[in-house]
Predict the 3D structure of the following.
Amino acid sequence: SNISQEKVFPIFFWDKWKAVEEKLHNKQRLLCVDEENNVVAFTIYTMKFFKKADYLYAPLDKNGNRLSVEKEKTFLDEFHNYLKTERIADVIFPPSHIVVFNAIPSQSIYYEFGIMASDLTISEEDLFKKAKSNTRNEIRKAESLGVETKFGNGYVDDFYNCFLQTTKQKDFDAPPKDYFLKMTELLGDNVDIGVAYLNGCLESAEFSVIDNKNIYVNYAGTSFTPQYKGSNKFLIWNLFKRCQSKHIENLLYGGYRYKLDENDSLYYVQKFKKHLGVDVVDGYHFIKVINPLKYNLVNFAMRCKSLLTGKNFSFVNLKGLDVKKSK
């Protein structure tokens, strides 16, 4: 990395994360820096004749701070032009659900998108008050029942057993356990795993990544048959308190889609998080198509594969999103 004072930036700019992207995802991680030393981190993945890029984070200035809306738009438009001129990518997609953009770049496919986040700089008392009253009662009951929480990066096996139960229940594919083992190996103390037990039985678990200011809860699981359904809320509440003791400022808890149908399972995941008092940071995500011919060909092939297999093959899940095009 050419960034000085690397750790003032989110972990997605660090050399540790470069190792994750290149060893686990088979993606080349790159940094692009403009004349004012504003920087963005992104990845490239080559798929035969097609080059797919992904943002790792929004652009930041040389001190690791967000740009103004005007500067962000200028940076994005210049960056996209650079990708096209140098033939680096055919399309670039938004980052994972850890950050939103404040600006909408020119000629892009965009949609309003939120990030669920908790400000951990407020007092523990105020943080608890932000949760819904029934959630506060569930947390108190979990404590009285003797639900026990443990944290550290040595609980991969327990986390994965719990996570696997959730993925099977919701019918989506889970990364292999080796993925989490290797991530823990590559990131060391920047991985934090939380698990909850009741009467010696595993109730719920979460897998997070940490940098100097933020914790990103990337994966979570709940037992098929928890002895107490409030154990998962108790685990997250204790994660809040743990992060406060380590002077972490924000907890990032995934994306927020504004128009989800109540029949969609994601609707209830969002509801669960909001009942914990998590706020929504508003912004945008976008898809910037740089080579329309190649992008449309690949998109068509993926739609055909979806029809033939009955599974959804697409680059981005657009459920609950109002997709528009910018000028």
